[in-house]
Amino acid sequence: MTATSPKLERLLGFLERDPSNPALLTDAASAAFxxxxxxxxxxxxxxxxxxxxxxxxxxxxxxxxxxEQERFHDAADDLQSLLDQGEDVPAVRFNLAWSLxxxxxxxxxxxxxDAEAMAVSARAPSLKxxxxxxxxxxxxxLELGADLADRHPQDEALMGALATLAMDxxxxxxxxxxxxxxxxxxxxxxxxxxxxxxxEDLADAAxxxxxxxxxxxxxxxAWVGKGLxxxxxxxxxxxxxxxxRGAAIFGDHLGSWIATAWAFFIAGKTAEARDRFExxxxxxxxxxxxxxxxxxxxIMQGDLDAAKRNCEIAMRLDxxxxxxxxxxSLLLEAEGNPAAAERIRAVALNAPIGPGGxxxxxxxASSASGMLKH
Length: 374
Hints:
Blueprint: H1 6-17, H2 22-34, H3 38-49, H4 56-68, H5 72-84, H6 90-101, H7 106-112, H8 115-118, H9 124-134, H10 138-151, H11 156-168, H12 172-180, H13 186-198, H14 202-215, H15 220-232, H16 236-250, H17 254-266, H18 270-283, H19 288-300, H20 304-317, H21 322-334, H22 341-350, H23 360-366, H24 368-372
Helix pairs in contact: 1-2, 2-3, 3-4, 4-5, 5-6, 6-7, 7-9, 9-10, 9-11, 10-11, 11-12, 11-13, 12-13, 13-14, 13-15, 14-15, 15-16, 15-17, 15-23, 16-17, 17-18, 18-19, 19-20, 19-21, 20-21
């Protein structure tokens, strides 16, 4: 790649005349990193390795390059090597905590993100809250978060992380407060979208989720929220696609997979719906809604014996199961006429199964906070 700074260009010129000079390789790799040319920086470091074991500064630089390239496993290995060599400084501990958290190794990350490590990066407060959130140490996270919010009142990433944590901890008023302070942070926008959806302010909800996705296209809560908004807006096809994307990013979030399955069902795509319900049961066989959804799919296919078994499992696991309640109602409708799939589906879409006689779609769309909690 063409050099992007005079310093880098000059150093590369020197290297052409002295290609094995360790000091030149180190300086050029550092200049390439500063010029944001990570591929060149990495290749220069690889050349330096052939000359001698990497010095601590060059090993640290290789870790930074790996972090920029999202090779967090490689970065963590190099950073741990630095610690093992006695380079136990706050910046190394912070970068190691970051790299471990990016691999979902939150217990390990938390051990390295001490007070000194948190002081070296503006990203540290939000990282700490995310780690405590993933470890489900909600009370500790909220207590620490209150102190961090006082010390960093303009930190929008911190406010977004705290909004999400407070929402999952069922402190909705606190979540609203933090979300309002999060500015354009995607987590804060997703939280604000959820609260707008709960009050059926669909225009505001859609705008919040879209803005969140503009900033962070891989935000799963924004995709799930967008899907629920589309479902509330009578666009089940669009809802299913958005929900499916959010659920896939979450990976193991049962509520988002259930919402996705029902959206596909409402859109008339029963094969896709069954696949998502089966995924829920595979993830957690004790979650009633997976079995309740499969019972409805069984009814649609005329297999009433399987439907009864799945319905019984759902209601045994949770007497208030939405899917189980719907399946129970549909079993009565299907008795004696198991082949009328479309009629049964029409009944399913309009059957009052929730508080106040809410239909399936209304129940899903109005349960935004539950669907977005992780």
